[in-house]
Design goal:
The chain has 182 residues and is an alpha/beta fold. Helix content is 32%, strand content 11%. Strand 5 (136-139), helix 6 (146-156) and strand 6 (162-165) form a beta-alpha-beta unit.
C-alpha cells in the first residue's frame, strides 16, 4: 500500500487527474475471487505534458516557515515520534517541533486494506481537525510513508490543502539549526 500510494501521489504531483489505488492490491482482488487475466494489453500511447502541482510538495524551508501555522503530522510509529527509536540514516531522534503523531498504520485494517472513509475521518479528526482547508503537512523518515496518509486525507476525506514534506526526518534531523522535540 505504501508503494501504491507513493506512485499515486507522484502521478497527482505530475498533473494526472484520475488516479486511484486498488485497495488491498491484486492480492486482495484475487483473494476476493475477482477475475484475473494473463492477456497482455498493449496501451495506446497518448501525448502527456506534465503540469506539476507544486502545492502538494513542500521543502524544509516551507516547513520551517509554517511551524506555527500548519498542522504538521508525523506518520511514523509512536516510538519514532517520541525519539525512543530512530532509523540509522536519521541524524537525530524525535520529531519536528509542534508535530502531531498519527501513525499511518492506524489507518489500515488488519488485512492491510484502507479503513472506511468514516473510520479514517474518525482517526484523523483528533489530530488534523475537521477544517478541510487547513494546511496539513505529512512527513515520515523519507517521504515514502507520508504518502498513504496524504492520499487518504486528500482523496478519501476531501482535505484540500494537504502536502508531503518529502525530505522528512532524514533531511530535517540532519540540520542542527532546525528544532526537534522528544
Amino acid at each position: 500500500m505504501v508503494s501504491a500510494a507513493r506512485v499515486a501521489w507522484t502521478l497527482i504531483y505530475a498533473g494526472v487527474k484520475d488516479v486511484a489505488i486498488l485497495n488491498g492490491g491484486v492480492e486482495k482482488w484475487e483473494k476476493d475471487g475477482k477475475p484475473l487475466t494473463k492477456t497482455i494489453v498493449k496501451p495506446k500511447a497518448k501525448p502527456f505534458t506534465p503540469k506539476f502541482d507544486k502545492t502538494i510538495l513542500v521543502s524544509k524551508d516551507y516547513v520551517m516557515k509554517n511551524l506555527d501555522k500548519a498542522i504538521i503530522v508525523d506518520v511514523r510509529p509512536a516510538d519514532f515520534y517520541s525519539g525512543e527509536k530512530k532509523q540509522t540514516f536519521v541524524e537525530r531522534a524525535g520529531h519536528i517541533k509542534n508535530a502531531k503523531n498519527l501513525p499511518w498504520g492506524t489507518l489500515l485494517n488488519e488485512d492491510k486494506t484502507y479503513k472506511s472513509k468514516d473510520e479514517i475521518e474518525k482517526i484523523m479528526a483528533p489530530v488534523i481537525g475537521t477544517d478541510k482547508t487547513k494546511t496539513i503537512i505529512f512527513y515520515c523518515d523519507t517521504g515514502m510513508f507520508a504518502t498513504p496518509a496524504w492520499f487518504m486525507a486528500y482523496s478519501l476525506s476531501g482535505y484540500t490543502n494537504v502536502k508531503v514534506y518529502d525530505g522528512s526526518a532524514q533531511e530535517w534531523a540532519a540540520d542542527p539549526n532546525v528544532p526537534m522535540e522528544k
